[in-house]
Amino acid sequence: MSDEILRWADWTSPVPPVEREVVSRLVEGETEQPPLLFVPGPGHGAWAFAERWLGHAANRGFPAHALTPREGGDLRAHVHDVRQVAASLPRQAVLIGHGSGAAVVAQALARYPARVAVLVAPVLSKWGAIGTAFKTNPLGTTPAVFGGRQRLSRRQHFSDALPAEDADRYLARISARRPFSTKNPGKAVGGPPVLVVGSPDDRVVSRKALDSTAAAYGGAPLLFPGMGHDMMLDAGWAEPIDAILDWLTKELSVTS
Question: What mean pLDDT do residues 126-154 have?
Answer without folding.
Answer: 55
